[in-house]
Design brief:
two-stranded antiparallel ribbon; 187 residues; elongated
Length: 187
């Protein structure tokens, strides 16, 4: 007879997500996951298959959390003003006790690069493309922009968001706000 789980998967994944977010994939061991999640190694493997499985579920939970600010951008009808607000909202989202921890997806791409398993990299790139699409939709609200300009500005904004994510881990609030203001002086 199968044992009943003594935990909710959503709760333990939330804890794992925060651990990966703080430490990165490589630096997070299964032992650390056991301690943080409050479940043993057998339960981790039984529920998620592997550390990688826990991480994939953590990425899904992260995307779900980020939906609160992504949906604001998705429903925005303010063009670049809406995108700029998204940047400020994203900066706030990356904070943990006044200390920035960046974006879990950006941190992972930076950490793992080409070493990432193809299915994980596909999931990470899908996330990036979803954000880029939101930028495109908002940029198109300005009817004077050409398709080519919209595409170039969306690429610029996507790369700028990656820079903001990394910067949020080491720069002051003033430096980050200056960065955002300079981005939108160029758009």
């Amino acid at each position: 007879m199968a044992r009943t789980k003594q935990y909710k998967e959503e709760d333990v994944i939330q804890k794992a997500m925060n651990l990966f977010w703080r430490n990165g994939y490589e630096a997070t061991s299964v032992r650390m996951l056991e301690k943080e999640m409050g479940i043993n190694q057998f339960s981790i493997y039984s529920s998620f298959g592997s550390k990688h499985g826990v991480f994939v579920e953590s990425i899904k939970a992260y995307k779900s959390e980020l939906n609160s600010i992504r949906n604001v951008l998705k429903n925005s009808n303010n063009g670049t003003i809406g995108i700029k607000q998204f940047f400020y909202d994203f900066l706030e989202f990356t904070k943990e006790n006044e200390e920035g921890k960046g974006c879990l997806v950006c941190n992972t791409v930076s950490e793992m690069g080409k070493k990432a398993k193809p299915e994980l990299m596909a999931e990470l790139m899908k996330f990036t493309e979803e954000i880029r699409s939101l930028f495109i939709n908002n940029l198109k609200q300005d009817k004077d922009r050409t398709q080519e300009r919209v595409a170039k500005e969306a690429n610029f904004l996507t790369t700028s968001l990656l820079g903001l994510s990394i910067g949020s881990r080491i720069q002051s609030e003033t430096q980050l706000e200056d960065y955002i203001e300079m981005i939108f002086n160029r758009i």
